[in-house]
Amino acid sequence: SSLPELQRDCLTPSRHVLEQCQSFGAQAQDLSALMSRIGLAGKLIARRLSRAGLMENVLGFAGNTNVQGEAVKKMDVFANQVFISVFEKSGLVCRLASEEMAEPYYIPENCPIGRYTLLYDPIDGSSNIDVNLNVGSIFSVRVQQGEDQEQTGADLLQNGRQQILAGYILYGPATVLVYSLGKGVHLFTLDPSLGEFILAQEYVQIPEHGPVYSTNEGNFWQWEDSIRDYVRYVHRHEGYTARYSGALVGDFHRILLEGGVFLYPGTRKKPEGKLRLLYETAPLAFIAEQANGRASTGTEPILDLVPTSLHQRSPIIVGSREDVALVESFIQNPR
Ligand code: AHM
Ligand code: MG
């Protein structure tokens, strides 16, 4: 009926969620509104990032001597606050749990209407901000189970299959938003002239195999033998290439589109690795599985892991099926 161009430009994430739900029922409306708020958070963060070097006290480039640590913190704190502001008085989310906050943040005026909890990493890969490289935000939505009267968020300590929606925003040359409701993975690009995310690719599938392995080889001598053996294997075989940016969202996004494997395994001193289960590895595992890829600790699917604390870490091996299986084979059958 309408012009093809208009049809395309109307395919925003909130509209897409309604189509995915195949209904205009209350749950569909809630999830659609939630997606549009997440998109707004992404736009607010993208805008701030794009001006970061110009604004005093954001990066500290302009006449601020005490740059590094503080500057990074400021953007982290800002991005964390963006998600809170966007969901306050929304009636949608009763709690937010973030990598940046020790305890969940409760929004009493949204309770008990908002049955959803948003878990997020507001700025992932923060060391990249100082040098104007890509960073991301990761999000995950769960339904509140039970009353949580003591406000401990104990019901969040469940496996990753309880996520009803997950995804990330990548602040790169373009800002992209990737999400899944458990019905495939969909990719949107921010059109700055419209200020809207517009559908770019539906039902994204990770290739069965890809050339990239993405890991911090600086940890080589801290790794277990099995991981070292895997990396020696790729060094000795043709067809592999290393890519590592220091920002998980960007490294993962490359693998989503082109295949390969990202790994942040544990080290001898820190067997759980660095990345957090609820805010980082479980949401990306959800996306990977929905795109026909896999995400593993080395011995079991990330999505089956049940945390015992909100900020628990987990190792992750994620990406193309064949490549994840190869890493697992080194872990499960040490040579
Ligand atoms: P952050 O959330 O504090 O930024 O930490 C997570 C980041 C990931 O984006 C990235 O994959 C990893 O830490 C890089 O860590 P390392 O410098 O140890 O390789
Ligand atoms: Mg992070």
UniProtKB/TrEMBL annotation:
Its EC number is 3.1.3.11. GO terms for molecular function: fructose 1,6-bisphosphate 1-phosphatase activity; magnesium ion binding. Mg(2+) 2 binds at residues 121, 124, 280. It holds the Pfam family FBPase_C. The keyword Mitochondrion does not apply. It catalyses: beta-D-fructose 1,6-bisphosphate + H2O = beta-D-fructose 6-phosphate + phosphate. It is found in: Cytoplasm. Its cofactor is Mg(2+). Its main location: cytoplasm. It is an enzyme of class 3 (hydrolase). Pathway: Carbohydrate biosynthesis; Calvin cycle. Mg(2+) 1 binds at residues 99, 121, 123. One of its GO terms (cellular component) is cytosol. Binds 2 magnesium ions per subunit. This is Fructose-1,6-bisphosphatase class 1. It comes from Gloeomargarita lithophora Alchichica-D10.
